[in-house]
Design a protein that fits this description.
Layout: E1 2-6, E2 9-15, E3 25-31, H1 33-45, E4 59-63, H2 65-81, H3 99-122, H4 129-134, H5 139-152, H6 157-163, H7 166-171, H8 173-183, H9 186-202, H10 205-214, E5 216-217, E6 227-228, H11 229-243, H12 247-253, H13 256-260, H14 275-288, H15 306-326, H16 331-335
Parallel strand pairs: 3-4
Antiparallel strand pairs: 1-2, 2-3, 5-6
Helix pairs in contact: 2-8, 3-14, 8-9, 8-15
């Protein structure tokens, strides 16, 4: 296996057979959606060539999950924070750069609140999580409760990425594809569907396994510290610019500083202590029944069913395509529906 770094994408060369030959090598290229667009354009332009090498058939594009994570945070910002009805006057300066931590912290407390609610339903005498922990339940009971809670709560993409659980990450792709479709991020939705189709139906098992085992990395070797390959690329690019005496320009222009936590001149600082914040957030969720249905409860803002909207749009799009094909439209005209303005760059 050979690694090479160049520009804004990451390439890994794998040999799928011990007999090293031209048709058993692939190069995995990790990058943003714009990188994938260029690679597919290259492959299409070389389809008339004679050999596998000349057709660049060995070149396999893999969507970078760091850019997907940023697009997901942007979608959540537009759904829950951007509408004026969701904010108070003190929240006018809410920044999208903070959304990654907001999603992670609220997700942790929301899961704890779900455990609290489920424990009160199933176990007599449990009023809080301390009482639940004191019961010392068996692993079978905890697993049964976990399965029930997982059906009633949304899987957290960020949590799965940090833990390096690629299987859980892939289970999040379909719900997020519908959310992206409903938010207007059609290119991300299409890329998620393309990834799942290729991994589970198109690529041979060996290639699918290689992609799944290398789409995430753990630069520090610590627990729960997995990162996407394109995150590592952007991180190294940032240091390269710094070493090339461009520090002043980076400080003025780069939006990546907050994401990589370089404002304190180091990436080795300890994580923040969130015990007090989590306790306040948990109290708020309990008081307002955030994860429980209460008949007659009112709200200033009704969260739109973005996932349902995306699913509906996908169904209508398929029906429209079938009608166009029935009317004699060509496949080339059919493909024009996938063209959108989103280029998949860091500016989500």
């Amino acid at each position: 296996m050979t690694n090479s770094m160049n520009g804004s994408f990451y390439m890994i060369l794998f040999t799928l057979d011990l007999n090293i030959s031209e048709d058993t090598k692939v190069i995995l290229v990790f990058g943003d959606l714009l990188t994938g667009k260029h690679i597919r354009s290259l492959l299409e332009s070389c389809t008339e060539e004679w050999t596998l090498w000349q057709r660049f058939q060995f070149c396999i594009y893999v969507m970078g999950l760091f850019h997907l994570k940023m697009a997901a945070a942007d979608a959540m910002w537009h759904i829950f924070i951007h509408p004026k009805k969701t904010r108070t006057p003190t929240d006018e300066n809410s920044l999208i750069e903070l959304m990654h931590e907001v999603i992670q912290h609220i997700g942790i407390v929301a899961h704890l609140d779900c455990w609290h609610i489920e424990a009160k339903k199933q176990i007599p005498g449990v009023e809080n999580l301390d009482d639940f922990a004191a019961k010392k339940l068996t692993s079978e009971t905890l697993q049964e409760m976990t399965r029930k809670i997982s059906k009633e709560s949304i899987a957290k993409l960020l949590h799965a990425l940090n833990y390096g659980d690629i299987g859980c990450v892939e289970t999040c792709f379909m719900p997020w594809a519908f959310i992206f479709q409903g938010c207007g991020k059609h290119k991300y939705a299409s890329e998620l569907w393309r990834y799942l189709e290729n991994i589970h139906f198109v690529y041979p098992p060996g290639l699918s396994h290689v992609i799944q085992m290398n789409i995430l990395c753990n630069p520090t070797g610590k627990r729960h510290a997995f990162r996407a390959i394109d995150w590592l690329v952007e991180h190294n690019n940032l240091y390269t610019k710094y070493l090339n005496h461009q520090k002043a320009r980076i400080l003025d222009e780069s939006p990546l500083l907050e994401m990589f936590c370089l404002e304190h001149k180091t990436t080795c600082h300890s994580p923040p202590k969130m015990k007090v914040t989590f306790a306040k957030l948990s109290t708020y969720m309990v008081e307002h029944n955030s994860n429980m249905f209460v008949a007659g409860q009112k709200t200033k803002y009704i969260v739109p069913d973005t996932m349902g909207k995306g699913l509906q749009a996908m169904v209508f799009e398929k029906e429209n395509r079938n009608e166009m094909m029935g009317d004699g439209e060509t496949e080339d005209q059919d493909d024009e529906a996938d063209v959108i303005d989103d280029d998949g760059s860091l500016d989500v």
